[in-house]
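ESCALATION

Customer reports they have been waiting on this structure for their group meeting. Please prioritize. Original submission:
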Amino acid sequence: MIPLSGLPVLTAAQMRAAEDSAIAAGTGVGTLMQRAGQGVADAVLRLAGPHEILILCGPGNNGGDGYVAAARLLAAGRKVRIAAAGDPRGDAARVARAGWGGVVEPLATARGAPVVVDALFGTGLSRPLDPADAAALARLTTPATLSIAVDLPSGITTDTGALLGDVPAFDVTLALGAVKPAHLLQPGASRCGAVRLIPIGVESAPAAHVLAAPALAAPAPDSHKFTRGMVAVVKGRMAGASHLAATAAMHAGAGYVALLGPTIPGAPHALVRRRLDDATLGDPRIGALVVGPGLGRDDEAQALLDRALAAAHPLVIDGDALHLVTPQRLAARTAPMILTPHAGEFAALFGAPAGSKLDAARAAARASGVVVVFKGADTVIAAPDGRATLAPAASAWLSTAGTGDVLAGAIAAMLAGGRDPFAAAGAGVWLHAEAARRAGPAFIADDLAARLAGILA
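Update from on-call: job pushed to the front of the queue and completed.
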């Protein structure tokens, strides 16, 4: 079992193409099924302890993987049973069932077990489960001590993470061959539990990957405040939001952070206060300019945004500013930009998302020509050239005011520090999630900003 960090993410079509390529190169369907089943069996052996195991098999190749796993577990001396939702339909699955050789119980009447493995339906499912099969799946998995899904929990759309019905939550999901979007996109990801990869010997070259930890290095001996990166934050109507973004940039490693606008009482002494004027905006040392946190949406806010857009600096655009700009105006600007919309801001700027969240983020990045961080319970980072990163689920306690401002500041620090926009966005998202994990429950955004420094240490 392999953790997901940095791994490729394949859609259902990409996975089929990877399997077809392996088959064309001489690896038979049966061989792929044997590899998958062996990998599942090995994982179950490590996870299940001495308990009885019930494997639920569907009529397709996912069910075939389950038959192979059951035979391997039986050969290893484990007490294992199979319940099936129907007879195998493919040749490889029929061979796998014959290799099991034991009793196959009807799914509808099967009794439970402490460990239940769902091998009913995996990648490519496009319609809801038969109601009787769905009821049996819920009846058997809900009381289990340990529930494991093979490839995906049955009833989840591979590419979008949408639920095709009531899908029980699993403790572990074993992704076969590659990570799929539904392992990371909500609401499907919430049903997967801990996801681990089972390699089966297929390869692909996708443009999407799981977010990985960035390389974080201490400043070099000859570093100074400007080589570490200068961030400037445009102060808006809600001064606290600008303050949070600036504080986050400082704790995320920027060497010099300036707040452009009137002084905020209680701000750290290390936060430089500067006027928002042509001289400041013309400072070539600014490595990232943040506009949007607490900006407001009136004429004054529009004027502040216009000045930021007219400057030649890389921009991080967040919050209210996303309601005051258009994709066309963004595409006309030449300096690097990163947008950080949540769902409401995304819809205001790009319209209602079409397709999966991954599809929507990629389309927005292409339309605007900038890096888009489509944030939320699942976060997707997309570049105009089609590259994309999907972040694992972060702490649900991030659903509190000001955490988006902290994210904007963290991304700005990464951008000002010399990373390209796509890498800076990924590094900022990772730092933000890790800070939330370390902060524990019921933190506030101020706590989150302060936690960033400990991660760098």
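Sent to customer with the following note: Residues 163 and 299 are 43 Å apart (CA to CA).
Escalation resolved.
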